[in-house]
Amino acid sequence: MPLQTLSRSLRPLVLLILALLTACNPPVARVDQVALDWPAEAGDIVALPMQRASGRWLVSISFRRPDGGERRALAWLNMGAPAPVLSKELYRELGLTEGRDLAMRIGAIGVTLGGRSVIDGPGRIGEQELFDLIFAPRRVEAVLPAGLLRHFVVTVDPGAATLTLARPGTQRPRGVPVPIRVNPVSGIAVADAWVDGRTVPLVLDVGAPFTWLRGRTVATWLGRHPGWRRAEGAIGRANLAMADLDLEPTGTVIRLPRIDLAGLALTDVGALGTGPVGGRLGEAALGEIFWDRWQAGVGEPVAGWLGNNVFDTVRLTLDYAYGQSFWERQRASGPGDLDGVGLTLVRRDTGYAVAAVATRDGRPLVPGIEVGDRLLRVDGHPLDGLAPEAALAALSARPGEQRVLELDRSGAVIRVEAEGAGF
Q: Cα separation of 142 and 148, whole Å?
C-alpha cells in the first residue's frame, strides 16, 4: 500500500520505522575498490581488543585525515550492516564530501576503500542520532560492517574480548563447523537453523545484543507451544533499541528450548518476537515492514537474527570465503539472562521513560507504573546520564528481589516497590 494512502495517524510511525531501518541497515551499497596493506611483520593474523557497550562490541580504528594525520574513533562491530557508516562530523572531517576515498588502519592492517561505499551519518530516531541513542554517553562514530569484514577470516572471542582478522586460507579455525551463506554484495552471513521441525534462516550478527525474530514466526510457534511464552514487552537486553517503536513495547519474549544448527545444538535461547509496526492495522497495511526492509541487505528472506545472548557463549569464527562458520563453546547459556523488573524503556534525551509495562497472562508485572512515566532512580541511584547497559543493569533482579523505583509522572514524583521476575 503506498504511503500516501495510509491513514494520517500511521504516517509518522511509518516514517519513524523507515528512519530506524536506514540507520540500522542502510540501502545496500557494494563495498568496492578495497585495497589492503598487510605488513609482512604483522604476520597472517592480527588481533584487536574489543570494548563492550550496550551489549555490543566496539573496536578502535585509526582513520587518515586529508592532511595525513590520524583520527582515532570507536567503531561498532556490526555484522548485520552491509556498508561502513560514519557520523556526519567524521564523514566531513575525513573529506568524504569532497569525493575522497576512506583510508583507515585496523590494527596493523591498512585499508582503503571507495568513498562512495560509505554512508554519511547513521540516521536519526526522533531528536537523537542513532549512535547517541544506543551508546551515549560513550562516543561511537563509525560502523565496521560485514561488507568490509568479508575480506578476512573473522574471529570474535567474547571471553578474551578480542577481534581477530586473518588472511583467508592461513589458519585452521577451531570449533564446530556450521555452513553459512554469504551475500556477495553486503557480506551478511545467514545460517539455517532447525526450530520446531522446520528450517529457519537466521542472520549471524554480533552487532545485536539479543536475538530478535519476526513476530509472525513467533506467533506460529506459540500457537503450537504456548509454554514458550515468557512475557509481553521487551525487557532487559531484549530492549536493545530503546526507541519509540512498537517493535519492543508490543513484542513477545519467548524461550526456545532448542535451536539446532548443523552439528550444534543451542538450548534455552531467549528471543524477542517483534511487535507489529502501527499495531495490527499497520501490519495489515504494511506487512512486517521492519523485517521486509531490513532483509534487503541479506538478499533472501530470513526469520530474524541471532544476537549476543547466543554469541556471548561461543568463540565464533566466520570464514566468508569458504562459506563456513566455526563455533567453539566457551560457557553454558544462562536461563536468567533477562531476569529483572519487567519494564520496557525508551531513551528520552539523557534519561529513560517507560514505554511499556511487561505483562504475563494479561497481568502487569509491575503494578502502579504507567506508560510515559520517567524513571528517575532505582534504589536511590539516579539513571539520568547513564549508558543503556547501566540503566538495564539497575533493573536486573532475581525473581522476588525488590527494587525501589522513583518516577516522574507529569511533574509529581511517585515511588513504587517493584519485584524482579524470571524470564
A: 13
